[in-house]
């Protein structure tokens, strides 16, 4: 078999396993992202009507009905085309943005490209970004192949995911991170699109954020600890595949990482580039809290996957509910526009204080 096709088949099987485990098992972190430990100060005299609340914003020139993005999930296996199509249709209808899942399958086997391109076909106007993993930058990276794919998808941005915890626990993982920072600097200079860097559930520290800002990265998605837990996902998968050493490793490291709220607070204090809050964001209130802390957007993966697997209509209602929750938080803090959220006062309880004092 052709080497690229063989690799793509392996990557696709892994994606199918990930989706199935995330849907069937409890893969949420045993420890919290921190949102319930942060309380926005209530304003009993908001001096606005609920209908005056304007939740709209924009991302790299694209309008968003509210600051919510569908985080990276999928592409590659043929069954993922329907998932990407349904999420993109909802994104188009509701004026929201979408990060596609890792491009790995398509780079190894171009016959899988349609599972990603479908997003642009059904959502011509949305902010749409493609996604590549750090290990793919570290070894045998081909910029021209990536640029061709970006142009096929008509993407508006490139996302690079940093996932060292996941790679080390994954059966056949690729914990290759040497040279990744230089490669990020290289693609920032050569890709001619905004480059966004994200984690996948272990958070970004202020030191890493500062390095990424220095490299010219356009935005950071903190994707902290507290939501989908990749140590747990890979631990379950490793056990199923008979690798009990990696299974035990995943269990041990399931509380490893920086809770999303803590990551967000320390990144916001140290960098000026836009921040995306994710990793355990589970409501419109969590999105509002994220903006108060300095994020420009909130994003979700697992709840979106669970909802879209029920139906496109379910995802559409889920998004409407998020918007209702977000607008309610704006109303109760007296904010007419999303930029005003930054000025809202908040309390943190002892759980968060203990993290921030370290
Ligand atoms: C089934 C599934 C597949 C994912 N695939 C990718 C991926 O290909 N690339 C990536 O950067 N993140 C991927 N993620 C991680 C999410 O984008 C996100 O960072 C993480 O799940 C935390 O958000 P959550 O708690 O809202 O799920 C995936 C998440 C899920 C649930």
What does this structure look like?
- By secondary structure, this protein is an alpha/beta fold.
- It has a single domain (3-356), classed as Alpha-Beta Barrel (TIM Barrel).
- The protein is built from 16 helices and 12 strands.
- It has helices spanning 3-24, 80-94, 104-108, 114-122, 134-138, 143-153, 164-169, 180-190, 206-214, 230-240, 244-252, 260-270, 284-292, 302-310, 312-332, 350-356, and strands at residues 38-40, 57-59, 62-64, 68-70, 97-102, 128-133, 157-161, 195-198, 219-221, 275-277, 297-300, 346-348.
- The strands form 3 sheets. Strands 4-5-6-7-8-9-10-11 form an 8-stranded parallel barrel, surrounded by 7 helices. A two-stranded antiparallel sheet has the order 1-12.
- Strand 4, helix 2 and strand 5 (97-102) form a beta-alpha-beta unit.
- Helix 2 packs across helix 15, helix 9 (206-214) packs across helix 12 (260-270) and helix 13 (284-292) crosses helix 15.
- The N and C termini lie far apart (53 Å).
- Bound molecules: flavin mononucleotide (FMN).
- Flavin mononucleotide binds next to helix 1, strand 5 and helix 14.
């Amino acid at each position: 078999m052709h080497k690229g096709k063989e690799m793509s088949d392996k990557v696709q099987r892994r994606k199918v396993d990930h989706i199935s485990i995330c849907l069937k098992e409890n893969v949420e972190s045993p420890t919290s992202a921190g949102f319930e430990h942060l309380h926005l100060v209530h304003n009993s005299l908001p001096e606005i009507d609920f209908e005056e609340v304007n939740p709209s914003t924009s991302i790299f020139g694209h309008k968003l009905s509210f600051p919510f993005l569908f985080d990276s999930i999928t592409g590659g296996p043929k069954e993922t085309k329907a998932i990407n199509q349904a999420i993109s249709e909802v994104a188009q209808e509701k004026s929201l943005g979408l990060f596609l899942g890792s491009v790995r399958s398509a780079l190894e086997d171009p016959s899988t490209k349609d599972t990603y391109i479908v997003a642009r076909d059904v959502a011509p106007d949305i902010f749409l970004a493609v996604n590549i993993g750090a290990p793919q930058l570290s070894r045998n990276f081909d910029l021209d192949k990536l640029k061709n794919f970006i142009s096929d998808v008509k993407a508006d941005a490139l996302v690079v995911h940093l996932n060292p915890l996941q790679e080390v626990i994954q059966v056949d993982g690729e914990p290759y991170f040497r040279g990744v920072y230089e490669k990020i600097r290289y693609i920032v200079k050569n890709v001619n699109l905004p480059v966004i860097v994200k984690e996948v559930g272990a958070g970004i520290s202020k030191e890493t954020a500062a390095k990424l800002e220095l490299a010219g990265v356009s935005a950071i998605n903190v994707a902290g600890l507290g939501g989908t837990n990749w140590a747990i996902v890979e631990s379950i998968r490793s056990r199923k595949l008979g690798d009990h050493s990696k299974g035990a490793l995943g269990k041990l490291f399931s509380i490893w990482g920086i809770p999303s709220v803590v990551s967000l607070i320390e990144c916001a204090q140290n960098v000026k580039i836009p921040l995306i809050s994710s990793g355990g964001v589970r409501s419109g209130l969590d999105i509002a809290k994220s903006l108060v802390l300095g994020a420009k957007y909130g994003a979700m993966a697992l709840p979106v996957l669970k909802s879209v697997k029920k139906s496109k209509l379910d995802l559409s209602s889920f998004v409407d509910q998020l918007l209702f929750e977000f607008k309610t938080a704006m109303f109760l803090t007296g904010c007419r526009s999303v930029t005003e959220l930054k000025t809202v006062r908040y309390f943190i309880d002892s759980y968060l204080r203990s993290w921030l004092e370290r």
